[in-house]
Amino acid sequence: MTASSQTTLPASRVHVNLGDRSYDILVASGRLQGAAAAIEQWCTSRGHKPGTGRLALVVTDIHVEGSHARTVAQSLRDAGWRCEIESLPAGETTKSLEQANRLYDRLIDLRADRHTVVVAVGGGVIGDLAGFVASTYSRGIPFVQVPTTLLAQVDSSVGGKVGVNHPKAKNMIGAFYQPLGVYIDTVLLETLPDREYRAGLAEVVKYGVILDAPFFEYLEAHVEELNRRDPDVLRHVVARSCRLKADVVEHDEFERTGLRAVLNYGHTFGHAFEALSGYGELLHGEAVAVGMVYASRLADRLGRIPPELTTRQVQLLRQLSLPVRLPDPQALSTENLLARMQLDKKTVGGELRFVLPSRLGHVELVSGIPAAEVTAVLAEFQQPG
Ligand SMILES: NC(=O)c1ccc[n+]([C@@H]2O[C@H](COP(=O)([O-])OP(=O)(O)OC[C@H]3O[C@@H](n4cnc5c(N)ncnc54)[C@H](O)[C@@H]3O)[C@@H](O)[C@H]2O)c1
Ligand SMILES: [Zn+2]
To answer: Is 3-190 CATH 3.40.50.1970?
Structure first.
């Protein structure tokens, strides 16, 4: 898939309505050169100086620099911007205060001011880090995201959570800081490694289960297109996922009402699997895929859903080559998993709370779940088979 996957269809636009922090997400295919025009328009509409001679810092990582970040930088230069690139090591360890400092140094050396735009071209690591730096440099400078992983396109670039990791706690240092806009090109996903692509699909399936039954059915009907990364299907899937997440964020921007918790379906189990199987063993999206199956089984055990709902999720996840059980369930002890889940953000005083489906397209945050029920689900999957 190269030039053939370019399309002339118009970009989809998802408007995120957050008062004076509102912004647009544009979803196109094969139009990365159009990034400059969008950035220019977003800046001027917010009262920043017009582009010519203005400064942009493109933040990226070494896997994305040559393929995608340079195209964005060139499009800005062609439009008359002064544009520099800062390329960081790839991987989760880059989401650190140390790398943030490197970006502050670069901004200061470039004499960046309040009109300077930080453009994140990369996955969630680059988006979270660059957004955090933009939120704090000079008390906040314009920030644009050009997400290049499926996870970043459907999840991390929507909602304004930015931040870095503390050596002892992931995502512990951060802010809510909305971008000026998000520019998505689904063709960028063609270079994404297979596992990373599929991990992003797990979050897409999640949106269908928690919020949108017809979207889940659409995914079931387009498995083949998804597996070959068809840009037209991806454009729809990415735009719909962004819309669904934006709907939640619009009602709970600062994670106060509890609504945003629905996005954590599959994540209480998933985070425990990720942590105990050793970070890196399971990608986040893979852990979420398995976590959704466990959470759905738990809902079934509690009599909240019929077994077919779990079966449908298992089938779809399998067709997308995602795991539906742990690679080696016996390796993780039930007690450790339970203890880990009791540490989860959504527990209050050690009480177990889970986001559970009540039907396709609808979930509820359920409190007071007996540990014995959770243990029983974990034990079920520890049987060989
Ligand atoms: N802010 C939020 O709301 C939010 C939500 C979910 C996750 N996150 C964060 O997102 C991060 C994970 O993001 P991720 O999964 O995108 O990981 P990532 O940014 O590490 O990217 C995964 C890998 O893919 C490479 N890559 C990126 N785009 C590529 C492309 N087009 N072609 C080839 N290689 C490419 C990267 O270099 C990296 O090696 C985590 O730190 C997580 O905490 C944030
Ligand atoms: Zn997730």
So the answer is: yes
